[in-house]
Amino acid sequence: MSEESYIQRVEIDHQPVELYKILKFEGLAASGAEAKMLIDEGQVQVNGEPETRRRRKIVDGDVITLDDLELRVFCE
Fold first, then answer.
1. Residues 7, 8, 10, CA angle at the centre, nearest 5°?
2. Which among 53, 50, 55 has a CA at the least distance from the CA of 64?
3. Radius of gyration (Cα) for the chain, nearest Å?
4. How many domains does the chain have?
């Protein structure tokens, strides 16, 4: 991740949550279809590894990266 990266805290109230839903609800994709496309194209990483599974289960502690944005997931 570059020095210009931005880290955003994402709080979820239950887990797991599907990856594409987090992208959609956090405003990184305009729709679920757009979120799935970003994942299909390999633009999303989870915990530092490229992720192409749209329904990857995201849990507390996971880190999602898209471009220069890093999302850190916390379950309250």
1. 145
2. 50
3. 11
4. 1
